[in-house]
Amino acid sequence: GAGVSQSPSNKVTEKGKDVELRCDPISGHTALYWYRQSLGQGLEFLIYFQGNSAPDKSGLPSDRFSAERTGGSVSTLTIQRTQQEDSAVYLCASRQQFHSYEQYFGPGTRLTVT
Amino acid sequence: TQLLEQSPQFLSIQEGENLTVYCNSSSVFSSLQWYRQEPGEGPVLLVTVVTGGEVKKLKRLTFQFGDARKDSSLHITAAQPGDTGLYLCAGADSSYKLIFGSGTRLLVRP
Question: Could A101 and B99 be called an inter-chain contact, meaning their C-beta atoms sit closer than 8 Å?
Fold first, then answer.
């Protein structure tokens, strides 16, 4: 079956611009996670959506970062007024809600802020 | 704050050798997962361990979860060049958020 998809695969933007990153989870997976992978920082949690519950935003590094999930499926991560330190690979993962620990990752979006 | 220390960071070995990667924490995790990541791709799940003391085998890979569910190890027997990649351990908290180790970059030389 189809895995987690993310778009775009690469994004180059100028400092100060806003960007939107998209994640399409595995069909039927109700939990969706965003992570960021950068050199020297490893993989870090950003935000978590579970069904209709309020998202867990505890990992968002600043108020320039926000995310939404429409219809319990597709999610968009938005970074406003991008900074060079935002350059990283942004990874999305989804998980089946019940009886499952496993998270399945998309290929990521490589964001470069110039 | 839960942290996972993974070691070694880099490992370069000859084909046929054995190796062990360690993942340690002072925190208890509800589960621990091992991933492998290739350049330009997302992490691919290898195994999930849940029960303290659990051992799982995946061909030449053996995964162990510590009795106290604070640490884990990955042992590869007779490594092959195809095993080359970045290996990541990740502990799950009560809401299944993953806390990742820093990764072990493995190079298996033919």
Answer: no
